[in-house]
Give the backbone structure.
Amino acid sequence: MNFFNRNKTFVYMSLIFSILFIMILNFGFNIFTNDAFKKFIKTKINSEKKVKLSSSHFTGNLEDKKWAKKLLSGGYIIYIRHAKRRSDFPSTGIFDLLEAEIHENGVNGTRYAENDYFSTAVCLTDDGKIQAKGMGELLKEIRLPVGKIFTSPSCRARQTAEIMFGYYDKIDNNLLHTGVYSETQKKRFNDLRDFFSSIDIEENKNTIITAHGNVIVPGLFENPSQRNLRIRQAGMIILSKNNNSLKIDYTFEKFDLFIRALFER
């Protein structure tokens, strides 16, 4: 009892601090297990991540700039994957085959699916048409030198050329994507090599090809492992030709990367 009397203040203070400590622990536990608080923290962290990621949009890629400027002088083959099409349509290949083969318009002709019942299966979507029109307007603004234009018989490839450039010179079935016909890899490669060997590049101009995502394959080129050939819809692959040898020079995964390299704020 004498100890309690002598240390009464100390005992009371210890008791108060213990209660406060327990309350703080309980408050902290409730905060960190509260769903609204956890959602707030997660949103905060994600927003900071987004800010950090978006900072890359402000960094100019010097290689992009170099190759975008080179194209302004001509001398290359610019391979453009068609603009946006429907990705959820089943069995697109059978309708590409219908368009390329079931018609009376001759070899390397087309059925013009844009006027047929299966147009939504193989043609550009409304968004794709807008995309191609915007691309064409920008290419006109930068005065990209354009020579001959080749296209796949598929509606979406032809429409991309027509909307971007106002015309195309020749349809070629070799530019239709793999998987439509029964063919061996060897025959496919030989046909593509023959096609690219036959292409001329006019002086100070670029030859344009509008086609599909899996026509350009590594085995066709002198430097097959030098570039990633996976491009998005409306992406671009830059090729050069020396006699009959082909070389992959550069890849723009999407058109945005090419065009923004030529515009500075």
Summary: The longest strand covers residues 245-252. The chain has two domains: 2-56, 60-260. Residues 60-260 form a domain with the Rossmann fold fold (CATH 3.40.50.1240). The first helix runs from residue 2 to 6.
